[in-house]
Amino acid sequence: MHRQATNDSSAATPFGWIDEQSAQRRAAGLVRVLRPRAAESDRLDLAGNDYLGLSRHPEVTEGAAAAARHWGGGATGSRLVTGSTELHAELERELAEFCGFEAALVLSSGYAANLAAVTALAPHGSLIVSDAGNHASLIDGCRLARGATSVVAHADPEAVGKALDTHTGPAVAVTDSVFSVDGDAAPLAQLAAVCREYRAGLIMDDAHGLGVLGAGGRGAAQATGLAGDPDVVATLTLSKSLGSQGGAVLGPAKVIEHLVNTARTFIFDTGLAPAAAGAALAALRLLSREPERAAQARAVAAELHGRLTAAGLQAVRPDAAVVSVRAPSPDEAVQWAADCRAAGLVVGCFRPPSVPDGISRLRLTARATLTGDQIERAVRTIERTAPAGARTA
Ligand SMILES: Cc1ncc(COP(=O)(O)O)c(C=O)c1O
Description:
8-amino-7-oxononanoate synthase, four-stranded mixed beta sheet, Aspartate Aminotransferase, domain 1, biotin biosynthesis, binds pyridoxal-5'-phosphate, 8-amino-7-oxononanoate synthase activity, 2 domains, PyrdxlP-dep_Trfase_small
């Protein structure tokens, strides 16, 4: 049947509806724009996720360059065809060993790693119990999985138990180890105990834990004594503390073998570029040699939090390297971030609809290499540009 031509402008052209959505976004003040940055800048960056300051470390950039020279500009194929090099295997061995897991699988991003882990471990007939504050990539994993999803209250092991109690058959609980919006840590030990009670697996996304939590940055699973347990799986990104690009799933060897055979974002995706694998491996080796970087990142976060709170601002106590500061409204959050930028400080700005609780915030990331002067400059700028309603009474 042919569709009727109408006068409705949204139906006049194939993508007419985009204009309508775009106008709505503009009216709501929610337009996002790309701001390509220069390689060198006088601005102080408290928005990137380079927690350990490794992305431009000479050993890391040389790791990327040497890998590209040796293996080529790309992996040449999917991992199961030609895209698995000896470098990928080496990175997987060292990641697993560093974080204390039996095996690891490297994928092209943390996003792909989360889709792989959740879809492969939640087959038809299974239940996924997902924290309401989880990262979009875990949420999308739940959407793509064949199992049913129950979204439960944030950081609430009891709610996880109640959801698991309703189900017979395979089940997994999925959670960020450190939540990306507020930087708070999941109650992993309690979650693991509840999962065990119901014989469910636990998948933790350690994107913000690797390099920051645990002994020498070995991650949240190591910090909570869960690394290597047969019912625990961790996902990682190589793009934050390791200053590179890519992702990984860590877990029991049988889980990794299952992913190799079933995870579509692993099977149907070109292998991670050798340069990214080389950079990540160099960063991992550097972190093993300089474990103090992890504690430094945590100390910088604690200092930022302490000084912002002392200035009367509402900052959430950081469990890792993310420091979140409450803003009174979305518009004021945007203006605050813009004023910081104009004053030479780059900070993140989170507002609805990216935040499920509707609270707008500035999001700061601590970096192990920030100097006392830089911390001072950042705090003074945030304090000076703060809207009146950002201060506690
Ligand atoms: C909690 C969390 N999980 C997963 C990802 C995705 O990782 P990647 O950027 O490597 O795709 C991110 C990155 O923004 C994240 O913050």
